[in-house]
């Protein structure tokens, strides 16, 4: 069974969003851990968390994925921005312990000219400050497109961060298909080679989720513009090979394509039909 969902926003609580996802043909979903512009995060109602747990188990949901806000830059050159990001990371992880969500994804950050080494070191410090030994949540570093000074544009940079985290069994990776293609990894013509490289550098056991997106730009563009499934440079055939790949097919897949709910439902239906 293909575990697939899309990005949805929490408006009426966690059980409501599970129902919304199921209505779209999904059995998981991704949501922002807080308002995407940053700001204060809303409290969790224990009744809602319990209802979410029951609903997820009754409907065979795969793990759901919380996405940190895009503005959380753990390696900013501005100390105030870094402090805010560090607080947000800690708060997000504390909150996630209260709901049945065991995956949290974040963009490693942009080093804004301080250099990759400084960037990696700030990110590892932040993780060491926030990740606890007994937390349920696995924290995922997202593979990035390499736009501007983004950290995480190659597998080696992610590996370097993981190596510096104390409780590194709590750290995994979320592979974004648009981003890795944009970063220059040829998942269209050499998916096996890219996965072998991932395994070699990071280890496939760290790979816990896939952001499934097509790309508006050719391989290696470093632009990070997502496209609808089958309408970009990755194309439907390559995406079908990804969801059916022996080493990937049991992971949860999350669509972040430019769609409304109707568009997401159509993509989920299409991809379910393409399962071999
Ligand atoms: Fe992301
Ligand atoms: Fe993504
Ligand atoms: Zn993106």
Provide key terms for this protein.
TIM Barrel; 8-stranded parallel β-barrel; 276 residues; alpha/beta; binds zinc ion; binds fe (iii) ion
Please tell me about this protein's structure.
The protein is α/β, with parallel strands linked by helices and 276 residues long. It has one domain: TIM Barrel (Alpha-Beta Barrel). It contains nine helices and ten strands. Helix 4 packs across helix 5. It is globular and about 45 Å long. The N and C termini lie close together (10 Å). The structure holds fe (iii) ion (FE) (2 copies) and zinc ion. One fe (iii) ion (FE) binds next to loops.
Helix count?
A: 9
Strand order of the largest sheet: 1-2-3-4-5-6-7-10
Low-confidence stretches: none
C-alpha-based Rg, rounded? 18 Å
Shape: globular
Given helix and strand content, the structural type is alpha/beta
Give every kind of bound small molecule, once each. fe (iii) ion, zinc ion
Secondary-structure element pattern, one letter each: EHEHEHEHEHEHHEEEHEH
State which percent range the strand residues make up.
5-15%
Biggest sheet character: 8 strands, parallel, barrel
- Total tally of structural domains: 1
CATH superfamily: Divalent-metal-dependent TIM barrel enzymes
Would you tell me which CATH topology applies? TIM Barrel
């Amino acid at each position: 069974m293909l575990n697939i969902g899309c990005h949805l926003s929490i408006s009426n609580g966690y059980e409501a969003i599970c129902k919304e996802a199921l209505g779209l043909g999904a059995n998981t979903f991704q949501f922002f851990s807080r308002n995407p512009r940053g700001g204060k995060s809303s409290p969790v109602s224990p009744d809602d968390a319990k209802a979410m747990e029951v609903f997820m188990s009754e409907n065979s949901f795969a793990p759901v994925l919380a996405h940190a806000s895009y503005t959380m830059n753990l390696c900013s050159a501005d100390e105030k921005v870094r402090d805010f990001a560090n607080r947000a990371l800690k708060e997000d992880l504390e909150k996630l312990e209260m709901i049945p969500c065991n995956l949290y994804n974040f963009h490693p950050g942009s080093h804004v000219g301080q250099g990759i080494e400084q960037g990696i070191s700030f990110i590892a410090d932040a993780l060491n400050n926030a990740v606890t030994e007994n937390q349920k949540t696995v924290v995922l570093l997202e593979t990035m497109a390499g736009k501007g000074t983004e950290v995480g544009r190659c597998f080696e940079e992610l590996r370097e961060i993981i190596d510096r985290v104390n409780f590194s069994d709590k750290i995994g990776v979320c592979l974004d298909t648009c981003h890795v293609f944009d970063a220059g990894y040829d998942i269209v013509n050499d998916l096996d080679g890219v996965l072998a490289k991932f395994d070699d550098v990071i280890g496939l056991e760290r790979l816990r989720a896939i952001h499934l997106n097509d790309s508006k730009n050719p391989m290696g563009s470093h632009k990070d513009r997502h496209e609808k499934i089958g309408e970009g440079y990755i194309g439907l055939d390559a995406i079908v090979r990804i969801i059916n790949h022996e080493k990937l097919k049991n992971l949860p897949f999350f669509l972040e394509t430019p769609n409304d709910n109707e568009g997401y439902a159509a993509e989920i239906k299409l991809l379910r039909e393409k399962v071999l």
